[in-house]
Amino acid sequence: MKFMLMMHAPRGTGDWAILTEWNPEALEAHIGFMRDLNRKLVNNGESVGAEGVAGPGEARIVRAGRDGSPIVTDGPFAESKEFLAGYWIVDVDSPERAYEIAAEASLAPGPDGKPLHMPLEVRQVMAAPAPADR
Asked: How far apart are CA 16 and CA 56, in angstroms?
Protein backbone atom coordinates (compact mmCIF):
# COMPACT_ATOMS: atom_id res chain seq x y z
CA MET A 1 0.00 0.00 0.00
CA LYS A 2 1.39 3.37 -0.96
CA PHE A 3 0.75 6.49 1.08
CA MET A 4 1.68 10.12 0.60
CA LEU A 5 2.74 11.88 3.80
CA MET A 6 2.49 15.63 3.31
CA MET A 7 4.36 17.89 5.69
CA HIS A 8 2.72 21.26 6.30
CA ALA A 9 4.46 24.36 7.60
CA PRO A 10 2.99 27.54 9.06
CA ARG A 11 2.16 29.96 6.26
CA GLY A 12 3.55 33.08 7.90
CA THR A 13 4.70 35.32 5.07
CA GLY A 14 4.21 32.56 2.50
CA ASP A 15 7.92 31.90 2.33
CA TRP A 16 10.37 29.65 4.12
CA ALA A 17 11.29 32.63 6.31
CA ILE A 18 10.50 30.45 9.29
CA LEU A 19 13.52 28.25 8.45
CA THR A 20 15.81 30.98 7.15
CA GLU A 21 15.56 32.73 10.51
CA TRP A 22 16.83 29.68 12.42
CA ASN A 23 20.44 29.64 13.56
CA PRO A 24 22.74 27.41 11.45
CA GLU A 25 23.01 24.71 14.13
CA ALA A 26 19.23 24.39 14.47
CA LEU A 27 18.76 24.26 10.71
CA GLU A 28 21.45 21.56 10.39
CA ALA A 29 19.82 19.51 13.17
CA HIS A 30 16.44 19.76 11.39
CA ILE A 31 17.85 18.81 7.98
CA GLY A 32 19.97 16.06 9.58
CA PHE A 33 16.85 14.59 11.20
CA MET A 34 15.10 14.52 7.81
CA ARG A 35 18.12 12.90 6.12
CA ASP A 36 18.30 10.24 8.84
CA LEU A 37 14.58 9.49 8.51
CA ASN A 38 14.89 9.23 4.72
CA ARG A 39 17.92 6.92 5.02
CA LYS A 40 15.99 4.71 7.47
CA LEU A 41 12.99 4.48 5.12
CA VAL A 42 15.26 3.59 2.19
CA ASN A 43 17.04 0.92 4.25
CA ASN A 44 13.65 -0.50 5.35
CA GLY A 45 12.52 -0.68 1.72
CA GLU A 46 9.62 1.66 2.52
CA SER A 47 10.72 4.78 0.62
CA VAL A 48 9.29 5.48 -2.82
CA GLY A 49 10.36 9.14 -2.80
CA ALA A 50 10.65 12.26 -0.66
CA GLU A 51 11.16 15.91 -1.53
CA GLY A 52 10.82 19.35 -0.08
CA VAL A 53 8.92 21.80 -2.23
CA ALA A 54 9.30 25.52 -2.90
CA GLY A 55 7.17 27.95 -0.93
CA PRO A 56 3.73 29.05 -2.07
CA GLY A 57 5.18 32.25 -3.54
CA GLU A 58 6.60 30.13 -6.36
CA ALA A 59 3.44 28.04 -6.93
CA ARG A 60 1.46 28.53 -10.13
CA ILE A 61 -2.02 27.56 -11.27
CA VAL A 62 -2.12 26.13 -14.80
CA ARG A 63 -5.16 25.65 -17.00
CA ALA A 64 -5.45 24.76 -20.65
CA GLY A 65 -6.53 27.60 -22.93
CA ARG A 66 -9.05 27.08 -25.71
CA ASP A 67 -6.25 25.96 -28.03
CA GLY A 68 -4.76 23.66 -25.38
CA SER A 69 -1.80 25.92 -24.58
CA PRO A 70 -1.02 26.54 -20.91
CA ILE A 71 -2.41 29.59 -19.14
CA VAL A 72 -0.25 30.18 -16.07
CA THR A 73 -1.26 32.41 -13.15
CA ASP A 74 0.06 32.90 -9.64
CA GLY A 75 -3.33 32.44 -8.01
CA PRO A 76 -5.93 32.68 -6.72
CA PHE A 77 -4.96 30.41 -3.87
CA ALA A 78 -7.25 29.29 -1.10
CA GLU A 79 -6.74 31.09 2.18
CA SER A 80 -4.66 28.87 4.39
CA LYS A 81 -2.69 29.10 7.60
CA GLU A 82 -0.33 26.37 6.40
CA PHE A 83 1.29 25.31 3.14
CA LEU A 84 2.83 22.14 1.75
CA ALA A 85 6.52 22.09 2.63
CA GLY A 86 7.47 18.60 1.50
CA TYR A 87 6.32 15.03 1.18
CA TRP A 88 7.23 11.39 1.38
CA ILE A 89 5.70 8.57 -0.61
CA VAL A 90 6.06 5.32 1.26
CA ASP A 91 5.15 1.76 0.35
CA VAL A 92 4.09 -0.02 3.54
CA ASP A 93 1.96 -2.98 4.63
CA SER A 94 -0.73 -0.98 6.46
CA PRO A 95 -2.13 2.49 7.10
CA GLU A 96 -0.91 2.16 10.69
CA ARG A 97 2.71 1.92 9.52
CA ALA A 98 2.22 5.08 7.43
CA TYR A 99 0.87 6.80 10.56
CA GLU A 100 3.93 5.67 12.55
CA ILE A 101 6.26 7.16 9.94
CA ALA A 102 4.25 10.41 9.87
CA ALA A 103 4.43 10.65 13.66
CA GLU A 104 8.20 10.16 13.53
CA ALA A 105 8.56 12.87 10.87
CA SER A 106 6.42 15.17 13.03
CA LEU A 107 9.14 15.07 15.68
CA ALA A 108 11.71 16.95 13.56
CA PRO A 109 13.52 19.43 15.81
CA GLY A 110 12.74 23.13 15.72
CA PRO A 111 14.98 26.15 16.32
CA ASP A 112 15.19 25.40 20.05
CA GLY A 113 15.96 21.72 19.45
CA LYS A 114 12.53 20.62 20.70
CA PRO A 115 10.22 18.58 18.43
CA LEU A 116 8.03 20.72 16.17
CA HIS A 117 5.07 18.30 16.21
CA MET A 118 4.37 19.34 12.61
CA PRO A 119 1.06 18.20 11.15
CA LEU A 120 1.37 15.65 8.35
CA GLU A 121 -1.53 14.75 6.11
CA VAL A 122 -1.55 11.03 5.23
CA ARG A 123 -3.40 9.91 2.12
CA GLN A 124 -3.35 6.61 0.29
CA VAL A 125 -2.00 6.74 -3.25
CA MET A 126 -4.69 5.15 -5.34
CA ALA A 127 -3.98 2.82 -8.24
CA ALA A 128 -5.95 2.87 -11.44
CA PRO A 129 -8.34 -0.04 -11.85
CA ALA A 130 -7.13 -2.91 -14.02
CA PRO A 131 -8.32 -2.62 -17.62
CA ALA A 132 -11.34 -4.73 -18.44
CA ASP A 133 -10.72 -7.67 -20.75
CA ARG A 134 -12.22 -7.13 -24.16
From this structure: 9
pLDDT-above-90 percentage for the chain: 49
Fold of 2-124: Alpha-Beta Plaits (3.30.70)
User: pTM for the full model?
Assistant: 0.80
Whether the CB-CB separation of 122 and 5 falls below 8 Å is answered with yes
pLDDT at residue 42 greater than cutoff 70: yes
16 pLDDT more than 60: no
SS (H, E, C) the chain: CEEEEEEEEECCCCCCHHHHCCCHHHHHHHHHHHHHHHHHHHHCCCEEEEEECCCHHHCCEEEECCCCCEEEECCCCCCCCEEEEEEEEEECCCHHHHHHHHHHHHCCECCCCCECCCCEEEEECCCCCCCCCC
